[in-house]
Specification:
Elements: H1 2-26, H2 33-68, H3 72-92, H4 109-123, H5 129-150, H6 156-178, H7 194-217, H8 221-225, H9 229-232
Helix pairs in contact: 1-2, 1-3, 2-3, 2-4, 4-5, 4-6, 5-7, 6-7
């Protein structure tokens, strides 16, 4: 029995290392606290399932050993093998589900920010380097914006802010990704490539989020209400949906 307990501890340690490895290398670092919290809850739930499954196997092996007078080396081998297999499977699955673009602007401010950060993280591999840096910067800004949005009542001005973050920002990136890869660095009529247009647009949104956060922190909702100019260019003038489709 002591040997079984020792093996169960080794299995649990291996499972914890597997989950830690996934967090460290299996996924890119979080761009904000919101997405980090979503991933932490997901991994904790995984670990809990692994613990329950492995403990169940250990208890079953101990009960069987008590009833039949020991399960022997072969029985212990199969019990360990089953525990390791279950730990590996439950450590990998289910994978963290990335929210769909249509669901980003749902729920309270904290949920909206967390979902948007997680969605942005998963777009990073398809973006040019300057845009990736801006996405990382926006992730930090979204943390601060989310806190401010939680402290004010929902009203037309704040609803438009949520629309900027949960709808216009993701749509800008989605528009860029719909452009064929070989055309993303091709010069457009305005003298910029789609990659440059994307970076310009993300820069404008980053600046807008910073100004909005400052106004919310100052309680200056009147000034916030007139900051609707970001809706005039919608996705910034970074990407014109009409240009996204090569002629």
């Amino acid at each position: 029995m002591a040997g079984e307990a020792h093996n169960s501890q080794a299995i649990m340690a291996a499972a914890r290392r597997s989950l830690a490895d996934q967090r460290a290398g299996g996924r890119r670092r979080s761009i904000g606290r919101g997405s980090a919290e979503l991933k932490a809850r997901h991994y904790k739930a995984k670990l809990a399932r692994v613990v329950v499954a492995v403990v169940g196997i250990v208890v079953a092996a101990m009960v069987a050993g008590t009833i039949i007078g020991g399960i022997g080396v072969e029985g212990l081998f199969y019990a360990v093998l089953a525990a390791v297999a279950i730990a590996v499977v439950l450590g990998r699955y289910p994978r963290l589900k990335v929210p769909g673009q249509a669901h980003l602007n749902q729920g309270d401010a904290r949920t909206m920010v967390a979902r948007t950060e997680l969605w942005l993280e998963n777009q990073r591999p398809a973006l040019p380097a300057p845009a990736v840096q801006l996405v990382d910067q926006i992730g930090v800004q979204l943390d601060a914006l989310g806190i401010q949005l939680e402290n004010v009542a929902e009203q037309p001005a704040t609803l438009e802010v949520r629309k900027l973050v949960g709808e216009h920002l993701p749509e800008m990136i989605s528009t860029y990704r719909r452009i064929p890869a070989h055309l993303r660095d091709e010069m457009r009529a305005d003298g910029r490539t789609p990659s440059e247009q994307l970076s310009d647009g993300l820069g404008k949104i980053s600046s807008e989020i910073d100004q909005i956060t400052r106004q919310l922190a100052a309680g200056d909702l009147d000034s916030l209400a007139v900051r609707g100019r970001f809706l005039d260019y919608k996705y910034g003038d970074a990407l014109d949906p009409g240009e996204a489709k090569p002629g």
